[in-house]
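Run log // design_07
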């Protein structure tokens, strides 16, 4: 089927490639024209403005937006509303806050268009293995675009989770769980790394993928990283967060749900970004003040 695709970053371009493999007609646009030309060389039709993209699509049109969450998504949706027509559909495949998604749905619906939120997981590996899709929106437009969803997803990797915002809500919690899993692996491997036994963490991570209850795709990725550099010497221990962990923690607070593991995994990311910790200095100062305990000075 026809689909307009906006945003050809690492995930977006691979999603277009996967759709092309299933013989969908994709009209692609990216603000950087070079990326549009690159995907055109692989079989997509190109557009160098949103007006051109819309003009190349058959009605009712559907346009998938795969740009950074927040202002970039808001701006792109506003631009699309100027060129699309009633009956057309906008799909937001980024990691938007579900509160923003619900608000955008109402704004888009008031213009006579449909809006679908598609929480998308798979990262740079999605082209090969498929993307897990958590979809929210009204039943009719979701059903109409199912050929797209089923092409992007592996078998059993697509779910219409519920009404507007449900897809991004499920993806938010998914990413919160991911924070906790990653933190548990990180702590466990640090203990192994610090052991007096001088353990081979690459071999252990590979071992655990065979029959262990802690086997997972994340563990496979850890094994891959350790096989290349067991000491991870090329990396700095600085960990970003893209928002979903914060939103999950806030939702847990709003719903009176205890979520200590996810919360602490988020806070540990904050700590990773500090060159030095003021709170640790306060702790050292207090121990020195009340007990005369040794301190280290600059």
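design_07 sequence
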């Amino acid at each position: 089927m026809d689909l307009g695709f906006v945003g050809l970053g690492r995930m977006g371009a691979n999603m277009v490639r996967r759709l092309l493999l299933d013989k969908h007609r994709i009209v692609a646009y990216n603000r950087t024209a070079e990326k549009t030309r690159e995907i055109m060389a692989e079989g997509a039709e190109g557009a160098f403005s949103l007006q051109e993209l819309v003009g190349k699509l058959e009605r009712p049109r559907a346009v998938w937006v795969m740009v950074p969450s927040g202002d970039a998504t808001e701006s792109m949706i506003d631009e699309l509303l100027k060129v699309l027509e009633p009956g057309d559909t906008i799909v937001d495949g980024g990691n938007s806050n579900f509160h923003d998604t619900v608000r955008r749905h109402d704004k888009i619906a008031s213009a006579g268009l449909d809006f679908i939120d598609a929480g998308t997981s798979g990262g740079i590996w999605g082209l090969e293995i498929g993307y897990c899709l958590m979809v929210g929106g009204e039943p009719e437009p979701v059903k109409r675009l199912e050929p797209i969803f089923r092409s992007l997803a592996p078998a059993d990797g697509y779910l219409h989770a519920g009404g507007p915002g449900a897809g991004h809500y499920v993806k938010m919690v998914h990413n919160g769980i991911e924070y906790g899993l990653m933190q548990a692996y990180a702590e466990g491997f640090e203990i192994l790394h610090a052991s007096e036994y001088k353990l081979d963490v690459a071999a252990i991570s590979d071992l655990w993928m065979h029959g262990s209850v802690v086997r997972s795709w994340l563990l496979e990725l850890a094994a891959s990283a350790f096989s290349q550099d067991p000491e991870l010497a090329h990396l700095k221990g600085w960990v970003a967060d893209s928002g979903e962990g914060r939103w999950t923690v806030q939702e847990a607070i709003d719903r009176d749900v205890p979520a200590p593991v996810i919360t602490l995994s988020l806070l540990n990311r904050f700590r990773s970004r500090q060159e030095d910790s003021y709170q640790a200095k306060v702790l050292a100062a207090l121990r020195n003040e009340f007990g005369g305990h040794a301190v280290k000075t600059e």
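The first helix runs from residue 10 to 21.
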